[in-house]
Every structure is written in C-alpha cells, then in structure tokens.
C-alpha cells in the first residue's frame, strides 16, 4: 500500500524554522564578519514568531553563537541547537523536506549533491538525518526506479492542495547542473505525486540571471495562497532578465491549478541590477520567507523595496510584513528563503 503524503504550503502552521549558522566564510568571501551580524538579525526576527532550529558546527561554535545572540537580546529559549558540521548554510536545499502522512510527519531526504555543481557537500548530506533525529521523525531516502532522486527545496513551491511550480532550466537541462540524468517531466511528476502528494505541476522556463542553482523557483514564482501566485517581472527592456521573466509570466497566464481553474497572478518588481566584484547577483523579492503571522522579505536598499513590501502586504493581509536587508547575504547567491526550511507543525 503506497504511503499517502502531502507537502503542506509554507503558510500553514509551523513548528519552527530550520537555519544553519555559518561557520566559515567560503560562501561570502570578504564579507564573513558582516554576515554573522546579518544572520543574528535574521534569527532574532524569526524567533520573535516561532522556534528556530539552529544547526551549529560544534559545541564551541554553539557557545560563540550564543554570545552573539545574547548581544542582540535574542530569547535563547526560542532556539533549539542541533550540532552537525555543514559545508554551507543553505537549509532550503540540504535540509529535509517534511511532509504529512496518515501516521504524522515524515522527513524526506532528497540526496543533496551541491546543486550538481560543487564537490564539497559530504557534510551537508548528514543534515536531514540530524534534523529528523532532533524532531524525532522517521527519515525516508527518496528514490525512483531504484535510484536516489536529487531535488532541492528551492526548486519547488506548492499550494498545499496538489499544485507544484518548478522550472525546466533547473530540472530538465540536459547539460548544465544535471541533477537526475535522463529524467523527463513524467518522471518528475511521478516523484512529486508519490512523495509530495502533487497531482498538478506548472513548469516555468528559466531562472533569473546570476542564479548559481540554475533555475530555482524561489527566486521566480511563489504561491501566496491556494489560488494566487506572485511572479517577478523586469520592467527594463534592456535588462537580461526582461525576456525570460516575460516568458514565465505568459506561462503562468496559461497555467491551471489542480481543480482546473486559472491562478490569480500578482507581479513583483525586480530590484535594480546588483553587481559585486564583477558578478551580477541573483537578487529577488520572491525569496521571501513565510512564518506564523509574519512574512520576512529580502530588501536591497532600492526604490523598488517599498513596492515589493506593499505588494506582499496586500497578498498576506493577516501577517506582518518585515523587510530584512539582504545586501550582504546576496553575495552568497541567495537570501532568506534559500537559507531556511520550514518545519510544519
């Protein structure tokens, strides 16, 4: 008998948020000191609303982090430490995806492999098990036709009712950052159905320029309720993101939800191009994090920040909307959503 699973939407009740405090500066070269304090501020905001499950590298690292948190007057009762060495802090991708079953909750391990790009991910592979142990959950290794399936949390977004959004660039490109060689749309849709309870998949085209993951959806399109999708658009026709985001917008206009209805589409602006050390960084307001009673939104010292915050406030009338400066975080090629993973209640 197949296990009936459901991946709940991010706005459903949460037990907490999984984060990992950075312990080396490799993802943020030259900015590591600033990142520590950006992280403390992020943790402080999350812990105001719910429990933080915080991965640290060692007991010594935990002591150091506790001192930083005390300086910022973070309530340490709202922090549950998990000691587990990591290669990186991107919990959206290396952490477990927690789903509901008839028996309760189950932690899915989607076999993180450094986005099929980096070779140093062996420590990150242990995160799902370490988190599941802390939460006293069973871990399931995700396989398909006898082979491990590789899928990052940042590559998918769901409405909790059976519809999932993802991108072809991330999952189906035949040559660049190939997670699962030879997999077709039908293969992925079978996996989504078995492990996430998905009956309907909306396929976007490509991700934004500068995205190190090669097409993660959480920089592009996000569900904000069961029927509504926000999607980023670029208004400058000379910008490299303009055409691809128009393609995605048109796909959404033709998309259907699991019940055959059309989603409501809300557009979010893009911040102006952010360059650092010669690289274009993948800054996007779509990388927001939904908490119990709150939404944290990355902001970039940009005139569009206010428009993005107001747009998301209209999408989440019952929640506080708080901007978190992501100017330093984005140098690691991701922001709030990439760094976190929600733990359903």
Q: What this model shows, in words?
A:
The chain is of the alpha/beta class and 345 residues long. It has one domain: 5-stranded Propeller (L-arginine/glycine Amidinotransferase, Chain A), CATH 3.75.10.10. 26% of the residues lie in helices and 26% in strands. It contains 9 helices and 20 strands. It has helices at 32-49, 59-71, 91-94, 127-135, 168-172, 185-196, 241-253, 304-315, 336-339, and strands spanning 14-20, 51-56, 79-83, 97-101, 104-109, 138-141, 143-144, 147-148, 157-158, 163-167, 200-204, 221-225, 228-233, 264-269, 275-276, 279-280, 289-291, 294-299, 320-325, 341-344. The chain has a 4-stranded mixed β-sheet, sandwiched between helices. The longest helix is centred in the first third of the chain and has 18 residues, at 32-49. The radius of gyration is 19 Å and the shape is globular. The mean pLDDT is 97.
């Amino acid at each position: 008998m197949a296990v009936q699973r459901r991946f709940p939407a991010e706005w459903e009740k949460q037990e907490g948020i999984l984060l990992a405090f950075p312990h080396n500066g490799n993802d943020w070269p030259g900015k590591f000191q600033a990142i520590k304090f950006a992280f403390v501020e992020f943790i402080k905001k999350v812990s105001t609303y719910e429990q933080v499950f915080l991965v640290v590298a060692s007991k010594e690292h935990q002591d150091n982090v506790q001192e930083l948190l005390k300086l910022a007057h973070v309530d340490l009762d709202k922090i549950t430490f998990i000691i587990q060495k990591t290669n990186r802090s991107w919990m959206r991708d290396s952490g477990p995806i927690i789903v509901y079953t008839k028996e309760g909750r189950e932690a899915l391990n989607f076999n993180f492999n450094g986005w099929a790009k980096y070779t140093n991910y062996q420590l990150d592979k242990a995160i799902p098990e370490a988190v599941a142990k802390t939460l006293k959950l069973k871990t399931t290794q995700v396989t398909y036709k006898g082979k491990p399936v590789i899928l990052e949390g940042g590559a998918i977004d769901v409405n909790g009712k059976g519809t999932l959004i993802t991108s072809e660039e991330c999952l189906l490109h035949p040559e660049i950052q190939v997670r699962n060689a030879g997999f077709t749309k039908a293969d992925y849709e079978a996996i989504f159905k078995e492990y996430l309870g998905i009956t309907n998949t909306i396929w976007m085209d490509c991700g934004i320029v500068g995205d190190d993951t090669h097409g993660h959806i959480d920089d592009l399109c996000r569900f904000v309720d069961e029927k509504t999708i926000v999607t980023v658009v670029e208004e400058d026709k000379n910008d490299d993101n303009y055409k691809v985001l128009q393609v995605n917008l048109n796909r959404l206009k033709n998309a259907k939800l699991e019940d055959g209805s059309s989603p409501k589409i809300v557009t979010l602006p893009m911040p102006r191009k952010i360059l650092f050390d010669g690289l274009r960084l993948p800054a996007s307001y779509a990388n927001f994090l939904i908490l119990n009673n709150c939404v944290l939104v990355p902001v970039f010292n940009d005139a569009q920040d206010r428009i993005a915050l107001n747009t998301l406030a209209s999408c989440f009338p019952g929640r506080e909307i708080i901007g978190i400066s992501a100017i330093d975080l984005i140098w690691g090629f991701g922001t709030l959503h990439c760094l976190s993973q929600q733990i359903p209640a």
